[in-house]
């Protein structure tokens, strides 16, 4: 089985390959093709994978190419994990928004819109090529903003593209643990958009255990989301929001905190990873050691940053290892071997949330089998959550329209309609600011 990884020179690729190395079962991936635009990044990551493979018998064979069509031909699965504009682009997404006094963050608010506007045209081009060159392949989209990018690709690939995120599964796991339940046994009633969802229940042996958590301030205050949102607010909501909802519920504090940091998350990671890729240019460098060291630093600062800016608690080792690769591997196995399972994924709504049309990509528990991911029926969201979901989906649709038409006015509309952008004038300045710094937005006229 052939797996193609787009964004194959990315820093997290060794996590994916590491997950593949643990899979010994029949029908596993035997061939990995890394694709990236940047030769030196491909070379760096291929060296790490080479060292990972050295201690494992029958490790999947790895090749690398900068030719996209060659990478796609014959693929059974395509992981799309690209970052258009790189981490410098992410840093600019953050900086321009913060300078206008609104949230500057990778996926939420103005920063996420800018990232989406640059990424959608590239993702659409990839989707068209997959449809032509590997029509039977399944595309697993890691690329952020994951819900929006998955929807853009689904217009060309239908249900053959599935978006993933590690945050819902991480949240479910933390809730199960504080309740003393086995996360594998728990049914998590979660729905929304990517980075905009709520856990409304957690069923174990047919009983909803979430009310027990919501009624117990001690338990509620003991885990990351409890510390982040505060016991009172979680009790008022009657649900546990995805951590990214902190940017909505505590927007003013989040913006202020981010305005005060010396380096934004994107700027910090850009520097740190640049050092790793530089080091890899030395032929004698120990690749896996350098990668591991860089990753450990990244995780340490992740915890430190979270505490300072968002007030979040500590994360456990499982959360820090990301989890994206585990979700992706579980999804790929379920499809390839018809091993039925349930995963929270980004798929077309198909009537699951009645307020959204059938093609709107949502994040929801899905039954997965050889026929793909099938969203499970869920109870409707309460009005306040429906309001946010509809507003943000409306913004995503404007981003898709702007990317398709190249209309600057539509891009302004996307920013202006976002709940976290408080004036049309600010939206206009954001479009100015972003088109100034991002070559990838030159298409907006
Ligand atoms: C979580 C989110 C991802 C996001 C990442 C950022 O894993 O689910 O969508 O990209 O955090 O982490 P970073 O270490 O890049 O700031
Ligand atoms: Mn995510």
TrEMBL record:
The UniProt GO MF terms for this protein read: 6-phospho-beta-glucosidase activity
* Classification via PANTHER family: 6-PHOSPHO-BETA-GLUCOSIDASE, 6-PHOSPHO-BETA-GLUCOSIDASE-RELATED
Q: Which residues form the Glycosyl hydrolase family 4 C-terminal domain?
A: 190-421
Q: Which cofactors does it use?
A: NAD(+)
Q: Which key words tag this protein in UniProt?
A: Glycosidase, Hydrolase, Manganese, Metal-binding, NAD
Gene3D superfamilies linked to this entry = Lactate dehydrogenase/glycoside hydrolase, family 4, C-terminal, NAD(P)-binding Rossmann-like Domain
Q: What is this protein called?
A: 6-phospho-beta-glucosidase
- Cofactor: binding comment: Binds 1 NAD(+) per subunit.
Q: In terms of domain of life, where is this protein from?
A: Bacteria
The entry assigns this protein to a family as follows: Belongs to the glycosyl hydrolase 4 family.
What Pfam families does its record include?
Glyco_hydro_4 (PF02056), Glyco_hydro_4C (PF11975)
Name its species. Streptomyces rishiriensis
* EC identifiers of the protein: 3.2.1.86
Q: InterPro entries, alphabetically?
A: GlycHydrolase_4_CS (IPR019802), Glyco_hydro_4 (IPR001088), Glyco_hydro_4_C (IPR022616), Lactate_DH/Glyco_Ohase_4_C (IPR015955), NAD(P)-bd_dom_sf (IPR036291)
